[in-house]
Design brief:
By secondary structure, the chain is mostly helical. Helices cover 52% and strands 0% of the residues. It starts with 16 loop residues before the first helix and ends with a helix.
Amino acid sequence: MIKAVIFDLDGVLTDSKEAWFVTIDNTVKELGGSGFTRESFEETYGQSTRDDIEQYMPGNTVDEVEEHY
């Protein structure tokens, strides 16, 4: 019987940084955004979805972007 499930999305238990880079990069490309580079990712890693939209995917909604994430 499973008693607990642990989710780690911030890199404490597992290194998820590269997975987030690929996820955001793909989302920016799919939604027609621009300006996303590895350098910009390093500077903004961990910011909110709303901030990602403002910086890389203007004109998209939080729901649209989170659906892709």
